[in-house]
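Thread: Newbie trying to understand structure tokens

Hi all, I'm a second-year student working on a class project, and my supervisor (Dr. K.) asked me to get a predicted structure for one chain before our next meeting. I've only ever worked with sequences, so writing a 3D structure as a token string is new to me. If someone could post the tokens and maybe explain what I'm looking at, I'd be very grateful. Here's the chain:
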Amino acid sequence: MSAAELARLARAEERILELAAGLGLSFLPQEFDVVSEQKMLEIMAYRLPVNFSHWSFGRDFEIERTRHEHGYAVPYEVVFNSDPVRAYLMESNPYPIQVLVMAHVYAHNDFMKNNRHFQHSRRDMIGLASEAASRFRQYEQDYGREQVERIIDAGFSLQWDLDPEEPMHRESERGTRERLFGWARESPPEGSFSDLLPTPAPVSTERKRELRLKTPPAPTLDLLGYIIEHSPRPLAAWEKDILGVIKSQALYFLPYRRTKIMNEGWATYWHERIMQRLFQEGFLSSEEHGFYNLYNARVKAHLPRQLNPYLLGFALFKDLKQRWDKGRHGAAYEELEEQRQREAWDLASGQGTAKLFEVRRTYMDWFFLEEFLSRELMEELELYLFLEKDQGAHYDTVVEETDWRTVKRLLVRSLMNSGVPRVRVVDGNYRDSLQLYLAHEFEGLPLQEDYCLRTLQHIHQLWKRPVLLESRQQEGERMQRKLFIADGSGVRVNLD
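---
Reply by user tm_fold:
Sure, no problem. This is what the structure looks like when written as tokens:
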């Protein structure tokens, strides 16, 4: 990219910043890097600009490269929640698309700065990953690449088995014991209303000791963290470091996973507003407007085989703005049964923009869709369940389910816990023999048995004592209990 083109991009950024601030967005400092297609694909595959090496990143790079070369994916940008926020632009994209992307990035910046789920992220993660990459290279020299990759494999199999609320409510195990069993040390103070409080039942000395020694003191979702701290193997310092880095990066990316639809929808909603102003001002030519319309249409394309978070998030925010501007919410509106009455309802409330910023600040995808995805919007976006039907020489995509309640329920359910089944550590000293007892909470998200079996083998590799996983899943009209047991000779399954 020439100096003149870079100077023109700098002028565009200056105007975008002014327009975005005028629309009410607020940001952390922003930095842009213009990089080659090769570097952009590497960043996408390796998750960060610099990261440790692993075979799965190489696999993902080949997937991204193949998709890009065959026209299935155009990497517009990659943006990281850092301070300053770092965004990467692909140098081969046309100028109007770079302007679109910069407007999009500033809206991402606003979202990450203000959404509650990003507030406790490590905004120095890019530097931490670079340092970790250097340490991992040394571990490969000291202990062998195969040993290092084996630990990374195990860590990756557990990277999303963590407590999503941990960054907001960090508590040591000792702190948890004090909170749960502090009554064993001292009596609560007497007060004006102490007579209204229930009198605690007497607890034997043996039971107090048992509770204080219980591990974990309360069931925890932080499976990877628990293994790092409590494995009876025990783990070497370098192994703990590798697993700790994997957990740290998973916690960093978790807000992205929890708000993918909102984050992309928010950025798309505001980049359209900003670009509209730039065209009105004559900042871009009519020919460049044509480029923008083409690429923006691709961003918001309807995809029957998969959900497009840009389209769905944008449509939800646009609908939310209109509904709150017209007062189309609340009991009186929801009680209207005739479509004609609903379409004519307009209280001229003008609260749409305020509602947008309120939702941006506090929600994540799961609750966002549960509360604001309406029947009308689902029908407009053709959010149905599609099935690929084998026609012999080809496959046809056909509609399998159109009932909006069924489709919405399944869609919302898929967003629970970012689509990852919840598994809790119940007992790290099961039967007083250091066996690890885990329990799967069935919430409509069943375990994928083949993945489960391989993951249990990885857990056993790290724990070196028998690992038991209890699962209850819907089998027809009844709940079936399965007990998976990994003991070093493989994994067996007991059924009730």
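A couple of things are worth pointing out once you decode it. The radius of gyration is 26 Å. Residues 237-258 form the longest helix (22 residues). Feel free to ask follow-ups in this thread.
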